[in-house]
Write a structure and sequence with these properties.
alpha+beta
Protein backbone atom coordinates (compact mmCIF):
# COMPACT_ATOMS: atom_id res chain seq x y z
CA UNK A 1 0.00 0.00 0.00
CA UNK A 2 1.24 3.46 -0.81
CA UNK A 3 1.54 5.27 2.49
CA UNK A 4 -0.09 8.46 1.18
CA UNK A 5 -3.31 6.53 0.65
CA UNK A 6 -3.73 5.79 4.37
CA UNK A 7 -4.38 9.40 5.48
CA UNK A 8 -6.61 9.98 2.45
CA UNK A 9 -8.57 6.80 3.19
CA UNK A 10 -9.15 7.90 6.78
CA UNK A 11 -10.39 11.28 5.62
CA UNK A 12 -12.71 9.59 3.14
CA UNK A 13 -13.95 7.19 5.81
CA UNK A 14 -14.94 10.24 7.84
CA UNK A 15 -17.57 10.69 5.10
CA UNK A 16 -16.45 14.19 4.16
CA UNK A 17 -16.63 15.31 7.77
CA UNK A 18 -13.51 17.18 8.85
CA UNK A 19 -11.04 15.57 11.19
CA UNK A 20 -10.55 18.18 13.89
CA UNK A 21 -6.89 18.72 14.71
CA UNK A 22 -3.61 17.37 13.46
CA UNK A 23 -3.11 15.52 16.78
CA UNK A 24 -6.35 13.60 16.25
CA UNK A 25 -5.33 12.88 12.65
CA UNK A 26 -1.97 11.50 13.84
CA UNK A 27 -3.72 9.29 16.40
CA UNK A 28 -6.18 7.95 13.82
CA UNK A 29 -3.40 7.01 11.42
CA UNK A 30 -1.44 5.41 14.26
CA UNK A 31 -4.42 3.30 15.33
CA UNK A 32 -5.37 2.33 11.78
CA UNK A 33 -1.83 1.28 11.06
CA UNK A 34 -1.51 -0.65 14.29
CA UNK A 35 -4.91 -2.38 14.18
CA UNK A 36 -5.52 -2.95 10.48
CA UNK A 37 -2.22 -3.14 8.59
CA UNK A 38 0.47 -5.78 8.55
CA UNK A 39 3.16 -3.19 7.86
CA UNK A 40 4.46 -0.02 9.41
CA UNK A 41 3.96 2.74 6.86
CA UNK A 42 4.81 5.55 9.26
CA UNK A 43 7.31 5.35 12.12
CA UNK A 44 5.73 6.78 15.28
CA UNK A 45 7.33 7.91 18.50
CA UNK A 46 5.74 8.97 21.76
CA UNK A 47 4.99 12.67 21.58
CA UNK A 48 3.71 15.14 24.16
CA UNK A 49 0.09 14.64 23.04
CA UNK A 50 0.24 11.05 21.78
CA UNK A 51 1.85 9.18 18.90
CA UNK A 52 3.73 11.41 16.46
CA UNK A 53 5.25 10.75 13.05
CA UNK A 54 7.32 13.45 11.36
CA UNK A 55 6.99 11.53 8.08
CA UNK A 56 3.19 11.57 8.34
CA UNK A 57 3.21 15.28 9.22
CA UNK A 58 5.33 15.98 6.13
CA UNK A 59 3.05 13.82 3.94
CA UNK A 60 -0.03 15.69 5.17
CA UNK A 61 1.66 19.01 4.34
CA UNK A 62 2.57 17.71 0.89
CA UNK A 63 -0.98 16.46 0.25
CA UNK A 64 -2.32 19.89 1.26
CA UNK A 65 0.14 21.60 -1.13
CA UNK A 66 -0.87 19.24 -3.95
CA UNK A 67 -4.56 19.94 -3.33
CA UNK A 68 -5.55 16.44 -2.19
CA UNK A 69 -6.41 17.59 1.34
CA UNK A 70 -8.13 20.82 2.30
CA UNK A 71 -6.85 22.21 5.57
CA UNK A 72 -8.35 25.16 7.41
CA UNK A 73 -7.54 26.74 10.75
CA UNK A 74 -9.68 28.49 13.27
CA UNK A 75 -9.03 30.00 16.66
CA UNK A 76 -10.18 27.97 19.64
CA UNK A 77 -11.85 29.42 22.73
CA UNK A 78 -8.52 29.73 24.50
CA UNK A 79 -7.54 32.18 21.70
CA UNK A 80 -3.95 31.10 22.10
CA UNK A 81 -4.35 27.95 20.01
CA UNK A 82 -5.40 27.26 16.47
CA UNK A 83 -7.34 24.16 15.50
CA UNK A 84 -6.73 22.59 12.09
CA UNK A 85 -9.46 20.84 10.11
CA UNK A 86 -8.61 18.39 7.36
CA UNK A 87 -11.03 17.17 4.70
CA UNK A 88 -10.93 15.52 1.31
CA UNK A 89 -13.55 14.47 -1.19
CA UNK A 90 -14.20 11.13 -2.83
CA UNK A 91 -12.81 12.51 -6.11
CA UNK A 92 -9.58 13.44 -4.32
CA UNK A 93 -9.02 9.87 -3.13
CA UNK A 94 -9.62 8.50 -6.62
CA UNK A 95 -7.25 11.06 -8.17
CA UNK A 96 -4.51 10.34 -5.60
CA UNK A 97 -4.75 6.56 -6.03
CA UNK A 98 -4.21 6.99 -9.78
CA UNK A 99 -1.21 9.33 -9.46
CA UNK A 100 0.69 7.53 -6.69
Amino acid sequence: MNKKLLPLSLLRAADETAIEGITRFQKLVFLAQREELDEELYPFKAGKYGPFSKTLYDDIDRLVEEGFITQSSRETSSSARMKNRCTCSRQTVRRQSRTV
